[in-house]
Amino acid sequence: MSAFIRTLAGGYASGFNHVKPNEYRPRLLLFHSVDRKNMELIEVPFSRRSLDSTDVFILDMGTEAYQWNGRGCTKEEKFRASQFLQQLESDRNGRCKTEVTDEDGSEEHKKFISLLPDVAIEKKVEQKIGKKVIYRVSDESGKMEISLVCENALPKASLTENDVYLIDSGQSLFVYIGVKCSRREKLDALSHAHDYLQKTDHPFAPITVVSNNRKSKELDKLLE
Length: 224
Prior knowledge:
GO terms for molecular function: actin filament binding. By secondary structure, this protein is α+β, with helices and mostly antiparallel strands.
């Protein structure tokens, strides 16, 4: 499954707001393989000290975006990150300049490093577990709609094969991709997840994408 982050115009009812490229808060995103089937996307502290040679990172500056491939990253991480980078460029109508560099000491690599401040990373403070919720992402009506399915519980029976669901445990977020969901729902899924988290008290929670025809032990433990 290919997963992209995409910006969706919308209001409070959907839980997501459109953000113009020149209004973006610079962010550093980590692409990490959870296992052979699932990829995790995490926003990490905006510092060069967050970089790890075993993973791939995207530096999103709004009108510019850079992909940094650590020397020990996997081919799948490179591929997924490059898909994401291409989608960013497409979503922003060519107003986002993209560039890919490897951890090789080249001028491009040095440029990437120079864009990140060399600041200490604050130790994580234990967060309270937030409210459990499930949102349904669907374009069945002809337009993309995000609606609340349930809260304070995560019933497995609320998930179907026809749509995409955002499952928030209060500490982590799962994006559940139904086998029969539309192409647009699938392409926009990770974008909705990221934008949703920015509205919560746990904006840096890890995001895991799970397809309906694949198993996730972590998600199975959460669902009732």
